[in-house]
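[scheduler] slot 2 assigned
[scheduler] job type: sequence-to-structure, two independent chains
[scheduler] chain ordering preserved from manifest
[runner] begin chain α
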Amino acid sequence: MKLMAALGAMAGFVHSMTVAMATALIGAVMALLRIAFGKNGIVAIKRLFKRDKEEKREPITVPYGIAIALGAIWATLIRFNILKIF
């Protein structure tokens, strides 16, 4: 939260919305990759749809600081037309 606030203060309102969207997309991709290829990958995907109250589960975590940094870099590349999407 503090990192996103600092980026928003430095980038300005319009660019901070681009940073937030890029961060959300990268965070979603990272989470899906973590579920699919993390420890017990396919088993973790099956556990998402299975409801076992007896089984003790380890939480799946994603380091979101990496997603914020990559989102800021991606949004900056878009802003200065280094990375042209459309």
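[runner] end chain α
[runner] begin chain β
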Amino acid sequence: MNRVPLTEALLNERSAEVKTYLDFVKVAVERRAVLTAREGVVVLPLSTELTHTLKANLVLLLYSVTEATLIQLLDEMHDVIGNNCSSADALNAELLRVVLK
């Protein structure tokens, strides 16, 4: 039984974004990609500095995914605990039972 469906859905969605961006960065760095404007009028090679920026953006994206997922998980955990436990004492007993399994 999945008690955190929103978190799982968010993680799946965001992991797809990370994979897409990672694939983009790999192509950009490994194949010495160039940027072209619409209709091919301007062609600009990707500089080393720009590829470093793309890689740094990947770290920020991973941080963002981690933060969003953890916040969603904490929200869902709070809701489940609030709906299933009448007091902190009941929560402690329930946690003890889970730990002793």
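[runner] end chain β
[qc] chain β: The longest strand covers residues 34-36.
[scheduler] slot 2 released
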